[in-house]
Amino acid sequence: MKQRIFMYLFIFTALLVVFQFVNSKNIIEDYDQKLTNYIAKNEQLKDSIRVIRDDQVANLYMFKFDTNDDAMTYWENRGYRISEFVPFIKDELMNLNVYDSEDHPLVPYASMTDNKMLIDQVRMLNHKWIISSFTDGTYWGEMLLSYDIEDRQDLKFKVIASILYQK
After folding, report:
1. Strand pairing class (140-150; 129-135)
2. Do 145 and 107 meet the contact criterion of CB atoms below 8 Å apart?
3. What angle in degrees, to the nearest 10, is found between the helix axes of 82-95 and 69-76?
4. pLDDT digits (tens, 9 = 90+) for 89-126
5. Within 13 A of 119's CA, how many CA atoms are on the CB side?
6. Which of 7, 63, 88, 164 has its CA 20 to 30 A from that of 47?
7. pLDDT at 167 over 80
8. Number of H helices, E strands in the chain
9. How far is CA 136 from CA 69, 100, 109, 142, 161, in A?
10. CA distances from 150 to 70, 78, 91, 96, 155 (A)
11. CB 138 within 8 A of CB 118
């Protein structure tokens, strides 16, 4: 009787071990398959992100003074150093934010709040045009400016077009 109990116990244990082995093997294969799928999907998404980034980077260089050789050459041929020229133009434009009158010297819209209209962002497009945004804290807009320097000191800005966005 004792011998049969050990035999049944041995068979039961062997069946339990085989069951555990097969079950664990199936679980590991399932996890391995999921991991392989996730890795493939991750690579696909990384490639998509890389393509999108490349397109965005290419678009960032479009219509930018710093990457426009013709625009930089235009001012270099007139004796300006580009490393000093770009900050000079931006500083002069930002200096127009300090004004005593009710209306901004360039922004063609009056403030509809108690705050003044101020130019807050500037992007030089080329050797003749600038795009800038302006705001009074509540309302905002954008304007396209032309600029020119006369006699190496007299910087002139002219508003070509502007838009004020609806709140």
Report:
1. antiparallel
2. no
3. 90
4. 999 999 999 988 888 899 998 888 888 999 999 999 99
5. 26
6. 63
7. no
8. 3, 4
9. 35, 15, 10, 12, 19
10. 20, 11, 17, 18, 6
11. no
The type of residue at 58 is: A
What is the per-residue pLDDT across 9-40, written as a single tens digit (0 to 9) for each?
888 899 999 999 999 999 999 999 999 999 99
Rounded to 5°, angle at Cα 98 from 91 and 140: 85
Question: How large is the greatest C-alpha to C-alpha distance in the chain, in angstroms?
Answer: 117
**Residue at token pair 């085989």:** 18
Cβ density class 111-127: b for 16+ within 10 Å, e for less: beeeebbbbeebebbeb
Q: Which two tokens stand for residue 116?
A: 């003044």
Structure tokens at 46: 């990384």
Task: Measure CA 115 to chain center.
Answer: 29
Q: Which two tokens stand for residue 89?
A: 């133009």
Secondary structure of residue 156 in the 3-state scheme: strand
